[in-house]
Design goal:
Layout (H helix, E strand, L loop, with lengths): L4 H10 L3 E5 L5 E4 L2 E4 L7 H9 L4 H8 L4 E7 L3 E10 L2 E9 L14 H5 L5 E6 L6 H15 L3 E6 L12 E6 L7 H8 L6 E4 L5 H12 L3 E6 L4 H11 L5 H11 E11 L6 E9 L2 H8 L6 H6 L9 H10 L5 H7 L25
Helix pairs in contact: 6-7, 8-9, 9-10, 12-13
Length: 364
């Protein structure tokens, strides 16, 4: 057993989401969003390098020795499966291990809105799951893939960096391909996938114009495309796609979004009131004729008002979802207040007065 497995086993036993190892500090666990040290000495550079080297393949060691960061999956002997990033910093190397659940939680178990299940039934178009790093985008997508895998007879191709949840083929066939191992880039992966008779294509990250363009082509030509972007609202997601592509493709991009974008799920991850778990809270945009018109006329700033009044379509603003989650006692009101855009409705719900704005006494 690799020595690093002891830290990973401890992390899993404690229910952490991530294990952080860095020179000059003890190992740390991400517990319900907070980074906490374990009772261990500060790690020394040769010590940590030895821990990490033990789990690298020869090709990974060669790439890391050439100065490249590494992203890969690692199966610990006792701690389960992890997504790993290994990097260099000023004091030496560092590594972050993200715990991957052994069982894929269902959409219902995650507490996600029912409309997300409905989106899994589409045959063509694009669904985007967005949010900052660590907000549970991969878990939401894994739940959606698992739902399709159980309920439809399709060919599902996932393009990931790296492969996180391992999906066993059930009613559907699931083919998982990894960046750097099976495909040179996400864009090339999408291009190849379209020649492999896919029904559903998961693009792990739409990080550049070429990947976005290829994903749009796949969605337009009869495939259901699921993807992620590091944007923090539905409007920012739409604007990001339009701005990411060349100016000469602007009209074409707006037309695609109006016709083929099915939904944007923009999520945050908040502590529960007892601080023992975290729950995803989502802003949801469902494409309608009214939203399509706003996109085509470049009036996306008006989209939030349609989300606010679009409950019948399954839409909701993040602030609406946050208030509903507070009222259902599903999230910590103080954390919800921090994420709210219009903080006034949340002020009476906050338990920590220090979070509230100070009264302006200048004129007193």
């Amino acid at each position: 057993m690799a020595r690093i497995d002891a830290f990973l086993k401890l992390g899993v036993q404690q229910g952490c989401s991530d294990v952080h190892l860095a020179v000059g500090v003890p190992p740390m666990l991400r517990m319900q969003g907070d980074l906490l040290p374990i009772k261990f000495r500060d790690l020394r550079a040769p010590e940590l390098e030895g821990y990490v080297t033990e789990i690298l393949t020869p090709s990974q060691s060669e790439r890391f020795g050439a100065g490249n960061d590494l992203d890969f999956s690692y199966v610990s002997a006792e701690g389960g499966r992890f997504r790993v990033n290994v990097f260099r910093k000023d004091t030496g190397i560092g590594a972050t291990f993200r715990a991957i659940p052994a069982q894929v939680p269902s959409i219902t178990e995650l507490g996600l809105p029912p409309v997300i299940t409905q989106l899994c039934d589409y045959h063509q178009g694009m669904v985007l799951v967005t949010g900052a790093t660590g907000t549970g985008k991969s878990t939401t997508l894994a739940a959606m893939i698992d739902h399709i895998n159980q309920t439809r007879k399709l060919n599902i191709i996932t393009l990931e960096d790296p492969i996180e949840v391992v999906h066993r083929s059930k009613t559907s066939q699931v083919i998982q391909r990894e960046l750097g191992t099976h495909i040179p880039s996400f864009a090339e992966g999408v291009r190849a996938a379209m020649r492999e008779d896919p029904d559903v294509i998961l693009v792990g990250e739409m990080r550049d114009a070429e990947t976005i363009s290829m994903a749009m082509t796949a969605a337009e030509t009869g495939h259901l495309v699921l993807g992620t972007l590091h944007t923090t609202s539905a409007v920012k997601t739409v604007d990001r796609i339009v701005d990411a592509l060349p100016v000469e493709q602007r009209e074409q991009t707006k037309s695609f979004l109006a016709q083929s974008l099915l939904a944007v799920i923009s999520q945050v991850l908040l502590k529960t009131p007892d601080a023992r778990a975290r729950r995803a809270v989502c802003e949801i945009l469902i494409m309608t004729k009214a939203i399509a018109k706003l996109i085509q006329t470049e009036q996306t700033f008006q989209i939030p008002s349609l989300l606010q009044t679009g409950r019948d379509f399954g839409m909701q603003l993040l602030d609406q979802a946050l208030l509903a989650a507070i009222n259902a006692r599903e999230v910590d009101p103080d954390e919800a207040y921090a994420y709210a855009s219009d903080k006034r409705p949340f002020q009476k719900l906050v338990s920590d007065p220090g979070l509230l704005p100070k009264a302006d006494l200048a004129g007193a």
